[in-house]
Specification:
- Helices cover about 80% and strands about 0% of the residues.
- The two termini are about 35 Å apart.
- The chain has about 450 residues and is an all-alpha fold.
- It is built from 15 helices and no strands.
- Helix 10 packs antiparallel against helix 11.
Length: about 450
């Protein structure tokens, strides 16, 4: 019995070598990105609570846009990984072309929404709190948003290129581009926020300018490398010699991809609605959540990227018609991801409370952030399993199922629970946060049975 379980859920050295080789560059890239975001958060935090709340609010809104772009790119990636696994480079090219169109369309819509309703959206998160002014935070938020908009186009184009590159198993190049970009971001953050040497002291605006410049640099590196290494990126052959996408490719991508695109947007919007419910308890809560989420992102990188690798590895197996290999790899990757995540959760629970003391905030906010970090650590392994289940279902093209599993669940369960507990109960905000995060248990049960049913185990190209 034990031997059978070990064979089913634990791989050999060759398996983990391949898996880790694929995942490590992605983890490193994400780690550096989140570490710089952490430093950025600290530097902005030196400007006061209003600055933290303003940037956190705009980033929450930008999070919805980013997920819209990810969803647009992911719609093509479902087929991209399988086309590459099949060896159909022309089909892979059409998925790339679709990603360019879809990500740029999502960007246009995002810019129009931010320009038209930016003030109203930011105001939803800003409430009265001791020692903080919502009016000042709103002005800083609008200033930050107006600059961030300039960097949305290169971000979108970069996602189209980077996802296709990763589908071919080349995860190092996006990592290097990301490392250079975040290093630039970190240096410019310090120079432009505080005014170092010849650079002016721009505060919150400086942080936004640094982010925009970094996004242009990252996109330029990825695009230049892809076009200068055409033998490794055969999907670029003919990519710009026309505009069309055959109906037999476009139709399935839209049918399978539409739920995924809507899912990413609605899930992100749902999480923003949850945050907005928390924020009615005061700007102190919003500031503490910003600190907690930034710290949590540092520890979440392992399970997030290991989960993302599932869509690549399993997708390639499915595209090649190796269904049993896909199922076997999926089982082993899920177990490995949850195991790694549990270790990270223990470390985060033990040492996460040290991070809030770096911020220039009140003791009350530090104490609140520490409790949020501990709660997030408790539920992190459960989030890992849900994340792996999501990418497993997605790799087999079950996007309608993932839509129900992810965004519908968020709007039907998490958002209403957060709203009711925050508005109509006397529970403390930490307990509200605990119970809302605890809904991950329901997703675990759903994910287990859906993955076990093997409904995702199919070749779709």
């Amino acid at each position: 019995m034990l031997t059978s379980l070990k064979k089913k859920y634990i791989g050999d050295k060759a398996f983990y070598k391949r898996y880790i080789f694929l995942a490590t560059p992605m983890i490193i890239q994400n780690a550096i990105t989140n570490f710089v975001s952490f430093l950025d958060n600290i530097m902005v935090g030196q400007l006061g609570q209003e600055a933290i709340s303003a940037v956190a609010t705009v980033n929450q809104l930008n999070f919805v846009f980013s997920l819209a772009v990810f969803g647009a790119a992911s719609a093509g990636s479902i087929y991209g990984a399988q086309y590459f696994g099949k060896g159909d480079h022309k089909g892979h090219m059409y998925t790339f072309r679709f990603k360019l169109y879809a990500t740029l369309l999502a960007t246009l819509i995002g810019i129009l929404i931010f320009l038209g309703f930016g003030k109203e959206l930011i105001s939803l998160f800003l409430t009265e709190s001791a020692g903080a002014s919502p009016e000042i935070a709103l002005q800083l938020g609008l200033q930050y948003l107006s600059i961030i908009l300039v960097g949305l186009v290169p971000f979108a184009v970069n996602q189209a290129y980077a996802t296709n590159i990763k589908e071919t198993g080349q995860t190092v190049v996006p990592m290097v581009a990301g490392m250079i970009a975040v290093a630039t971001n970190a240096i410019l953050d310090y120079c432009l926020i505080f005014g170092f040497g010849p650079f002016p002291k721009l505060g919150v605006a400086g942080a936004a300018i640094a982010t925009v410049i970094a996004r242009y640099i990252e996109a330029a590196i990825v695009i230049f490398w892809a076009h200068s290494h055409r033998s490794l990126n055969r999907y670029l052959e003919g990519a710009y010699l026309g505009f069309g996408i055959p109906k037999d490719i476009l139709g399935p991508i839209i049918i399978k991809g539409a739920p995924l695109m809507f899912n990413e947007v609605l899930w992100a919007a749902g999480m923003s609605a949850v945050t907005q419910s928390y924020s009615i308890r005061g700007m102190n809560v919003l500031t503490a959540l910003s600190i907690s989420n930034t710290v949590g992102n540092l520890f979440n990188i392992v399970f997030i990227q290991l989960g993302a690798c599932i869509s690549i590895v399993v997708g390639q197996h499915l595209g090649a018609g190796d269904l049993e290999e896909a199922k076997d790899a999926d089982n082993k990757m899920i177990v490995f991801s949850v195991f790694c995540c549990t270790i990270m959760a223990i470390i985060m629970f033990a040492f996460g409370g040290l991070f809030p003391h770096i911020y220039n905030v009140s003791d009350d906010i530090r104490a609140l952030a520490t409790k949020f970090i501990a709660v997030a650590a408790i539920w992190m392994p459960f989030c890992s399993f849900s994340h792996c289940s999501y990418f497993t279902l997605r790799s087999g093209g079950k996007t309608l199922v993932t839509f129900l599993f992810d965004s519908v669940f968020t709007w039907v369960v998490m958002a209403p629970l957060a709203f009711v507990l925050a508005h109509f109960t006397g529970l403390g905000i930490v307990w509200i946060y605990f119970f809302v995060c605890g809904t991950e248990l329901i997703k675990n049960i759903m994910g287990y049975f859906m993955v076990k049913s093997n409904v995702w185990l199919q070749q779709i190209v």
